[in-house]
């Protein structure tokens, strides 16, 4: 760019102490994201964190707690309630050499910013043939499961995954949250980072920052041989629950955490299905034109001859996000996933 | 700790850059100007006029595709505004941008080539009429979505403010933009955080076919800045000297005082909203009024009257401008289209695993 950006990113891989790695810290996902943000702010003076109530308050979910105190009001700051403005600011900053990490407070609040996300964030690099860098990481507390009303429990992954120019990811554990966020912030592309609110308080080991699997790779979180369950975010845990129950009946389910929803790990999916010959994809978003359709299409394109049964989808229903008390019925239940497993096994 | 984080610059002393005059005087007069300066303004205005006429012609000949919004009638405004900017200042515009691109210093060849969709264009043929982007001249984009550029310009001003830089961001838009949410969000943030950005509203009385009176509850648009404590000024957009002086004043004040300003330039659009709009919603009187207010013709007769321009000089400038436009069109015509092999380039800055790069007849099944 034409402007002189601040000093480039500092050394991030050097371990000053040189000591043997200690046992990984056990953190909640919300603490893991906070730690990743702090590390990103510390390693690169161009990183900026901003959004509604992220500064003084530390965010609705306390994800940015303490960051303003530590890094100052210039680098971690509150914005007005203006989602389109927040994302547009990020675009203007990014094309001038900064690495913005804005937050949109809730999934449903991203809709007012879709104009900027789709029309500008995703396209600037392409439209300008690389003249405008766009290293924006857009954090969006997402998905359901906390008995919140509509606008506060929605799944927007298919919407964003449909937009060329964006990358999309969703962590399922504190360790994944930490690693995926650092990877997103360090990427030179815009990434929509969807945080599963329902898992914010889950505790887990978070290894120190280190080499990460490449963008666009999935992870087998439980190996199995009878069928593959594909999920992301909180649904990974639903699938692990299902796998444990199925194991009691001697059915070994493989659980694949997709992690990256754009680009999708088609090779990883094909490899898993080549082992299990059956697949069930599980997501919270409504069925029609959901990301499960893309997963099913990729599996049949890449592994058609391996398949012993049609890919099944277990999803939210084709209705607007229901009120809190009905949420447990709306989200994929263990029973619904088990039923789909039965269907692929008995086909 | 303050309630609101207010990003601030480094607090270094800032130079005020270009000339600074008192604008409290009466309307600027050509008698006070250097003939050379006046002739240069005239030449630039005529260049934009002829360039846009040639653009319209090329469009009807199907040399230019897509949509195409011309600056015909806006020449005095453009030259006045661009004269007010320093080279280091940034510019964001809407989709009616060809003249601004030229005014900001991009060669007419590259602008025309972009319109033709050729790889020698400002955005290598990928931006087209509405999306020219050039870091060298700090033209940070024309934008096709109404209001799309406002939050971006605000962000760019925030970037300047962070650095403690002394550049100013100018953000041009049409009158209709003042009704869109991004206007409110951006002016609020710019004022709240004291950002050096000058928002410029080109009021040509109509948003496509709907008048300002029928779409804005406060049709005196410069007053709309008061909701954000942004000082607003209205200027006759047909008068290049008035625009230059008003814009220079606000740009330099934005630079020295580190806060946003609003300028409304009253301008006449001489043709439809876009090349394909016959503008049938206009009465014959309105069309006559636009013609009578032709800024190029009126500046020309003023210069002739003042003896700054002679018939001979006029012909000389006309010839040179015609040659320049012809050269630009020839350059565009003889430039290659982008190679289809580059279709997938720049979608992402970094390599993407599992990327779908399917072209017709590519194998789909990879089992």
Automatic annotation (TrEMBL), chain A:
Its cofactor is thiamine diphosphate. InterPro entries: THDP-binding (IPR029061), Transketo_C/PFOR_II (IPR009014), Transketolase-like_Pyr-bd (IPR005475), Transketolase_C (IPR033248). Residues 27-202 form the Transketolase-like pyrimidine-binding domain. Pfam families: Transket_pyr, Transketolase_C. Keywords: Oxidoreductase, Thiamine pyrophosphate. It comes from the Bacteria. One of its GO terms (molecular function) is magnesium ion binding. The keyword Magnesium does not apply. Residues 1-22 are annotated as: Disordered. This is Alpha-ketoacid dehydrogenase subunit beta.
TrEMBL record, chain B:
It catalyses: N(6)-[(R)-lipoyl]-L-lysyl-[protein] + pyruvate + H(+) = N(6)-[(R)-S(8)-acetyldihydrolipoyl]-L-lysyl-[protein] + CO2. It is an enzyme of class 1 (oxidoreductase). Residues 44-340 form the Dehydrogenase E1 component domain. Its EC number is 1.2.4.1. Signal peptide: none annotated. Transmembrane segments: none annotated. It comes from the Bacteria. Its cofactor is thiamine diphosphate. Keywords: Oxidoreductase, Pyruvate, Thiamine pyrophosphate. One of its GO terms (molecular function) is magnesium ion binding. Gene3D superfamilies: 3.40.50.970. One of its GO terms (biological process) is pyruvate decarboxylation to acetyl-CoA. Residues 1-30 are annotated as: Disordered. The pyruvate dehydrogenase complex catalyzes the overall conversion of pyruvate to acetyl-CoA and CO(2). PANTHER family: PYRUVATE DEHYDROGENASE E1 COMPONENT SUBUNIT ALPHA, PYRUVATE DEHYDROGENASE E1 COMPONENT, ALPHA SUBUNIT BACTERIAL AND ORGANELLAR. Heterodimer of an alpha and a beta chain. This is Pyruvate dehydrogenase E1 component subunit alpha. It comes from Marinitenerispora sediminis. The gene is pdhA.
